[in-house]
Write a structure and sequence with these properties.
The complex is a heterodimer of chains A (about 70) and B (about 650). Chain A has one domain. Chain A contains 2 helices and no strands. Helices cover about 65% and strands about 0% of the residues of chain A. Chain B has about 650 residues and is mainly alpha-helical. The two termini of chain B are about 40 Å apart. The chains are: A mainly alpha (about 70), B mainly alpha (about 650). The interface between A and B is medium-sized, with 30 and 34 residues.
Chain lengths: ~70, ~650
């Protein structure tokens, strides 16, 4: 089938990762619930990196197998 | 427990996820032109995608919730469901069985049985499977809707309709391909959504070693946390070692299972019966683009499967460790009790006499309908008699004194404890993703088996492909509606549901014997397979009727044996049913005439099929090589947690 699943996975995690990063950086909360760690920021970065890697994979794979329109 | 309030960020993450899964369905809709596109993906999908879908379809919400529950109840030994009960069977499927499923061009497991044996075996398998998938997805929907209701205060009906509506939309649009593609997305969602919860929980418990240290103290006196009845005690490593407590015998591990039941019952019969014959998972491998991809599908799946215990079982162990550290102020949630019942119990607390603590404890316990900690109730009653407490204070006191654990609540109690807004949305989305992947798996397997193995085979034959394509779509809608019906049935008749699940365990127990003989012994006849399988199913029912465990079974009125746990009963029952099915099939096959010639069986039976030559594929893609490597890693994991 003509859809490379790495595109939607990459896009979704890039989006959610970016959301969490911004939320973690901007919204002031005391982080007591997450043991004093700004877990939204940290985990947002991880999701963002994962999402971008998936997108890179999709771009690289797209050379053999064209992405959807 | 107060419902959690979700923030806009949580809803945004949830909606983004739903938009993406529906989007995948819509994007794929234009490729759906024939029944084969819709029901079997026209054998076109790359290995890593089918591999992750293979594991994701199996990772339903019940698995996530249930494995954390078992992690709390039994500790690291729960990992046997992965290292013993899954990996070897997945490797066997890849190396030995996939060539026949894929090579025979069968579109489903029942269709393979039709080619190999005859219509009777196919019909038995197809009907049992179709009914089972509907009830499995119904039970899981009911569980999810209840969780969302308890945790978020969502209405049960709304939760049910929205979740199944999303699945319906993307499966109806993009068929099996969209189920498989979204399963891959869901796989990553589940892993990345729960990993931070495990990380925070483990950190709070003091790290891996501190957690084990706490669990060793718990194992010596598990009744202190209401994990076992008073007086039961184990060696300190009962929760932290996978093999030593099992090798010591069924009295020495919290599962109550001995080594033979574990290795033969779970590791061989149940595990191979599930992973090698269940169309829900096998269908994913059958959708792969070529034979090598199909064979490698279960191997790709085995890699994450091997490490899942750290994601799904460890949370249960964390919960027990936290509960044993009083300063953490955590308990595994007690059973969910309605407001009306609490109100009744609050009244009892106000009216009983504090001078007769024993009577007071009994009266409050009866009103709540659960076991209660006598000392806590007595002091609550005394405190209320001294200075009138508010209803809320009494309710909190009652909640704390319930001496029972609701293990299914473990995973969400940790999510609630550690997740701030944002991460909370992510973890809840992961839970929904696991539910949807399991449900889509069931629905796509159901529509294929129903359309090809029941409708096309027995009801309406010889129509155009267009006709079966439309049938597949209609059956998808029907399947989801039936699942919703099954969910309401499960909500209403808890006990009936237990009986239904029990009947399925009877049907599944012997099935691997039929496949083993069918695939590896050309002499096996259709009559032998059909009667052997029927005999095996009957045997498991009779064994269950003649034995008891934890008050279950023994419905034939005469008890021959009592098992230390229902898990042991389940494993032994499977082992017996398998053996009976194997022997019956063997004997009856020898006594009956073969109806299929060697030519008919080419591509269906091991000895009559040309061996696959793997010379032209790179070594890291050879199933036998990869399989052996995976087995070695699995053995190492077992040794580490011995």
């Amino acid at each position: 089938m003509g859809l490379d699943i790495r595109w939607p996975i990459g896009l979704m995690f890039t989006l959610i990762g970016a959301l969490l990063v911004v939320y973690g950086a901007v919204v002031k909360s005391d982080h007591a619930i997450s043991l004093g760690i700004n877990i939204n920021l940290i985990w947002g970065v991880i999701l963002l990196v994962f999402g971008v890697l998936m997108l890179l994979g999709a771009v690289a794979g797209g050379k053999n197998n064209p992405p959807p329109k | 427990m107060q419902p959690i309030q979700l923030q806009w960020i949580d809803y945004t993450i949830l909606i983004a996820y739903v938009a993406f899964v529906i989007g995948i369905g819509l994007l794929l809709a234009r490729y759906m032109k024939t029944s084969s596109d819709f029901l079997t993906s026209a054998r076109s999908i790359p290995t890593w995608v089918t591999g992750l879908a293979f594991i994701s379809a199996n990772l339903g919400a019940l698995e996530l919730v249930g494995m954390a529950a078992s992690g709390a109840k039994y500790g690291i030994a729960t990992a046997h469901f992965y290292w013993v009960g899954a990996i070897p069977a997945m490797i066997f499927l890849a190396v030995f069985m996939m060539p026949f499923y894929y090579g025979s061009k069968a579109r489903s497991v029942p269709e393979y049985l039709n080619m190999r044996f005859d219509g009777r075996v196919r019909c038995l398998n197809a009907v049992a499977f179709a009914v089972m998938t509907i009830f499995a997805s119904g039970i899981s929907m009911d569980a999810l809707a209840k969780l969302l209701n308890q945790l978020l205060g969502w209405d049960y009906n709304v939760a049910l309709v929205i979740c199944s509506g999303v699945v319906l939309l993307y499966v109806l649009k993009g068929g099996l391909t969209s189920a498989i593609y979204t399963e891959v997305l869901q796989f990553f969602m589940i892993v990345l959504g729960f990993a931070p919860v495990v990380y925070l929980g483990l950190k709070d418990a003091g790290g891996w070693h501190a957690m084990n240290h706490s669990l060793q103290a718990v194992a010596v006196n598990p009744s202190a946390l209401n994990l076992k009845d008073a007086g039961i005690t184990y060696a300190p490593d009962a929760w932290t070692s996978a093999w030593t407590p099992v090798l010591a015998g069924s009295e020495h591990n919290p599962m109550g299972v001995d080594i033979i039941a574990m290795v033969f019952g779970l590791g061989f019969v149940l595990s191979f019966g599930y992973w090698c014959t269940n169309f829900l998972v096998v269908q994913r491998a059958m959708a792969a683009k070529n034979m090598t991809a199909a064979r490698n599908t279960p191997l790709v799946a085995a890699v994450p499967k091997m490490f899942f215990p750290f994601l799904v079982i460890v949370p249960g162990m964390i919960a027990v460790a936290l509960m044993s550290q009083p300063d953490k102020n955590y308990r595994i949630p007690p059973p969910v009790i309605s407001t009306a019942t609490y109100a009744k119990a609050i009244d009892v607390v106000k009216t009983v006499s504090p001078t007769d603590p024993a009577a007071a404890v009994k009266a409050v316990g009866d009103a709540l309908g659960t076991k209660v900690a006598a000392d806590k109730i007595a002091s609550l009653v005394a405190a209320n008699a001294a200075t009138k407490l508010s209803d809320d204070q009494i309710k909190q006191g009652l909640y704390n004194s319930i001496a029972e654990n609701y293990y299914s609540g473990v995973i969400l109690s940790l999510v609630k404890k550690y997740c701030p807004p944002g991460l909370l949305g992510l973890a809840l989305t992961a839970l929904l993703a696991s539910f949807m992947s399991g449900m889509a798996g069931n629905v796509t397997a159901f529509n294929t088996v129903f359309t090809y193995d029941l409708y096309q085979a027995y009801m309406v034959r010889g129509k155009s492909d267009r006709h079966y394509f439309m049938t597949g779509k209609v059956i998808t809608v029907v399947g989801i509606l039936l699942s919703i019906g099954a969910a309401y049935f499960a909500k209403r008749y808890d006990n009936a549901m237990d009986v239904i699940q029990l009947v399925f365990s009877f049907v599944n127990a012997p099935i691997f014997a039929t496949f083993l003989l069918g695939m590896f012994w050309a002499r096996t006849t259709g009559t032998g397979a059909f009667l052997g399988l029927s005999g095996g199913i009957a045997t498991s029912a009779v064994v269950h009727g003649l034995t008891v465990a934890e008050g279950k079974g023994g419905w034939l009125g005469h008890t021959l044996y009592e098992f230390p746990s229902s898990m042991a009963q389940n494993f032994w029952l499977a082992a017996t049913a398998f053996t009976v099915c194997f022997v019956l099939t063997l004997v009856i096959s020898l006594a009956t005439r073969r109806t299929k010639s060697n030519d008919d069986l080419k591509g269906l039976v091991y000895s009559l099929t040309p061996k696959i030559v793997d010379h032209n594929i790179p070594i890291y893609q050879k199933p036998a090589v990869v399989g052996v490597l995976l087995l070695i890693v699995c053995v190492i994991l077992n040794l580490i947690f011995w």
